[in-house]
Amino acid sequence: MRYHLEFADLWPYWPQFLAGAVTTIEFTFVATVLGLVLGIVGAIARRSGTAWVRVAAGGYVELVRNTPFLIQIFFLYFGLASAGLRLPVFAAAVLAMVINVGAYTTEIVRAGIEAVHPSQIEAAEALGLSTFQIYRDIILRPALERVYPSLTSQFTLMMLQSSITSQISAEELTGAANVIQSITFRSMEAYLVVGLLYLLLTLLLKSGFWALGQVLFPRRRRLGTAL
Amino acid sequence: MGGLSLNYFLYLLQGMGWTVALTLLAFALGGLAGFLVMLARISPVPAVSRATAAYVQVIQGIPVLVILFIVYFGLGILEIDVPPLVAAGLSLTAYTSAFLGEIWRGAVEAVPRTQMEAAECLALTRWQALRDVILPQAVRIATPPTVGFLVQVLKSTSLASVVGFVELTRAAQVINNSTFQPFLIFGTAGLMYFVLCYPLSLWSRTLERRLNVGRR
Lengths: 227, 216
Hints:
The structure holds 2 protein chains of 2 kinds.
Chain A: H1 14-46, H2 51-65, H3 69-82, H4 89-114, H5 118-126, H6 131-161, H7 173-184, H8 187-216, H9 218-223
Helix pairs in contact in A: 1-2, 1-4, 1-6, 1-7, 2-4, 3-4, 4-6, 5-6, 6-8, 7-8
Chain B: H1 6-41, H2 46-60, H3 64-77, H4 84-110, H5 113-121, H6 126-156, H7 168-179, H8 182-215
C-alpha cells in the first residue's frame, strides 16, 4: 500500500492551529520579557559584593543550564502539584520557560557587562552619578546593546523550546498538533504543517528582533557594524 | 512512601546509560553529517552552498520535538517498523548536523584568508589546502563550542522519552507513575543529567580560556 499525504483533512482544524500559534507567541512574549528581567537581576547578582548572592546566582545558572528543559518542567509541574500547589498549565509552562531562559540570559548579560571598560564606571563615579544611574546608563545600556544579537537568538531558541511544554499538555502549537492528529489520524501531515508554522514564526521573530534592534539601538544602526 | 529504593535507582542508572549511548550515537552521526554540511557550506558552487544553507535554516527553525515527530510518523508511513531508538537517533542526527555544520563553518572562516591564499600560491589543491592548512587551525577554534554543543545534544536526548525510548527521562517518568514522588524522582534524574553535563561545560570553558590565551 502506498501512503498519500492528505492535507485536506486538516483544513477544518485551522482555527486550532491558529490558536496554538497564538499561544506559542504569548508564551514567547511573556518569557522573553520576564526572562530578560530575571537575566539582568541574575547578572547583577553574579557581580554582587556579597559572596552568598554570587554563589546562589552561579548555582542557579549552572543547575538550569546543565539539565534538560523537559526534566525542569516535570519537576516544577508535577512536583508542585504533589506538594498541593496545582498551577494552571499556562502558568507552569511560562514559569518553567522564564526560569530556563533567565539562566541563559544571565550569562549573556554578564558577558556584556564584563565588556564595559572599568574606566567608564570610574568616570561616571567621578561625575557623581548614583549607583542606579551608573547601572542604568553606563553599564546596562551599552552591555545590552553589545549582546543584543546573542540575546535575540537565545529568545528564538526559547520559542522553539516552548514546544516541549506540550508534554504537560499546554495547548501551544505542538500541543495543537497532538490533539489534531489524535482526531484525524493524519499525524505526519499535522506535524509537517506545524513544522512549517514554526519555521514562519522563527523568521517572523528574527525580523521582528532585527527591526526592534534598529529602533532601540540607533548607535548600532549608525555605525552599521557590531560594536 | 519510602525514599528512592535501590531497584528504582538502578533503573534510573540504566536509563542514564541509554542517555549516554543515544548522545554518542547522535553526536557521532551528526558530526559526520555536520562535516559534510560544513564542506557544502564553503563549497565554491553557489547552488550547493545555498541549498545547504536552506537545510540549516529549516532544521534550526523547527523544534527538535517536531522534527522527532515528523521522523517518527514519517518512517511509520513508509511502513518501516521504527524502533524508538532509530527515530530518536535520526532526528537528533539531523539536529546535530545543522548546528555543528554552522559551528564548524564559522571556525573554518575564522582562519585568516591569507592562509588559504598562501596555500594556493604553493599550488596545493583545494582539498590539500583544506586538509593540511585550514582544518588543523580550525579544529583549535572549533573545539570549545563543539564540546559546549555536546551538552545541548545530551539534554536534547531527553526528548526521546516522548516516543517511548526508555532513557533517563522516560525511566524517571515510569518510576514516578508508580511511586508519585515527582520532586524526588525528577530531582534525582536532574542531578544525573547534571553529573553528565557539568564536567563537559567546565571542560568547554577551560578550552575556551586556553584558546584565548594562545591568541592574545
